[in-house]
Amino acid sequence: MNALHYTLIGAGAAAAAIAVGAGIAAPYIHKLFKKSFGRAGALSDGQNAFLEGLRSHGFEKQVEIVKSGWDKLASVDYEKVYITSHDGHKLCAKLYAPQSPAATVILVHGYHSKSEMDFGCVFAFYAARGIAMLMVDQRAHGESEGAYLTFGAKEQYDIRDWAKYLVKRYGEQHSIILDGVSMGCATVLLASALPDLPVQVKAVIGDCGYSSAKAQIKQVIKEDMHLPAGLVYPVTTLLCKLYGGEYLGKADVERAMKHAKLPTLFAHGGGDDFVRPYHSERCYAACASSYKRLCIFEGSPHGLSYLDHKEEYEKEIIALLRHAGVLD
């Protein structure tokens, strides 16, 4: 959460320097951009920082839930699986699965994070219902290849391809769920609107995502950097195209939702002061699904709604999956 905040500022700073012709050397500009959009660094201290963040919000009980989930993950077997992305990158995921899973949920982590850290707390929920968990490393994260991330512009196709992998592995009768948080939320929502997404994908859960990469980045440029977003943002998306292979405009979730027909749960923390709740409200309003739910969880910070409102959140997931025919 905080890492995304400050690295987006770094991206804007790099773009601004180019835009105004400040005379900064090209290698320095590339270094700033690479820090923001480049591969995630090692997360050796990430778990401790995450727990300290929870404690700073007074979430002592939630710390125990998270630690219990991580301990459970560490104690069970998993299989490393791989696919090749549409643009040639080797992508990695960990599959936690019973012998005959009732369904599989593709869990998609946030910016410069990992699925085990973001979703360890929901392991028990899905495992108790016989649902396998495919914890992916998004491109430019963990063991997946890729030099640069694109905030969902390319990642949406990776999720589509993971869904195709599961169909090939488990058969055409196997049900698939998409579940993502923050940047992972934007990724799964974008994927849910793709015309060639496998029909086996039955439901989508999106937690605290942005309505578009453009809207979120421009907010940071304007409010945190106090720079003209209209000047800085075009250079940022150009850099994303040059280095990442796609313009940020392809990560427009609100626009994609006009073509989204799957049952979808939009979740957001009411106390999220980074990716603000209006992003989910706009995506919900645009969503073309006949079954859609918007849940703003009172007071919850960015990415912490499940921990803060666990019982209510789980009821919403169960209702979604029952409507989609995944659970009885």
The biggest sheet, with number of strands, parallel, antiparallel or mixed sense and barrel status, is:
8 strands, mixed
Q: Could you tell me the number of beta strands?
A: 8
Helical content stands at 40-55%
How many alpha or pi helices?
14
The parts where pLDDT drops under 50 for at least 5 residues are 17-26
Distance between the termini: 35 Å
Give the percentage of residues in beta strands. Answer: 15-25%
Structure class: alpha/beta
Number of domains: 2
From the spread of the alpha carbons, the general shape counts as: globular
Arithmetic mean pLDDT: 89
Name the features.
Rossmann fold, eight-stranded mixed sheet, 2 domains, globular, 328 residues, alpha/beta, 15% strand
Please write out the topology.
Elements: H1 2-19, H2 26-37, H3 46-56, H4 60-75, E1 79-84, E2 90-96, E3 103-108, H5 115-119, H6 123-127, E4 131-136, H7 155-170, E5 176-181, H8 183-192, E6 201-207, H9 213-223, H10 229-244, H11 253-256, E7 264-269, H12 278-286, E8 292-297, H13 305-308, H14 310-323
Parallel strand pairs: 3-4, 3-5, 5-6, 6-7, 7-8
Antiparallel strand pairs: 1-2, 2-4
Entry summary:
The protein is 46% helix and 15% strand. With 328 residues, the protein is of the alpha/beta class. The protein has 2 domains: 1-37 and 214-248, no CATH class; 59-212 and 251-323, 3-Layer(aba) Sandwich (Rossmann fold).
Description:
- There is one protein chain.
- Residues 17-26 have low confidence and may be disordered.
- 49% of the residues are buried.
- The protein folds into 2 domains: 1-37 and 214-248, no CATH class; 59-212 and 251-323, 3-Layer(aba) Sandwich (Rossmann fold).
- The chain is built from 14 helices and 8 strands.
- Strands 1-2-4-3-5-6-7-8 form an 8-stranded mixed β-sheet, with helices on both faces.
- The radius of gyration is 19 Å and the shape is globular.
- It has helices at 2-19, 26-37, 46-56, 60-75, 115-119, 123-127, 155-170, 183-192, 213-223, 229-244, 253-256, 278-286, 305-308, 310-323, and strands at 79-84, 90-96, 103-108, 131-136, 176-181, 201-207, 264-269, 292-297.
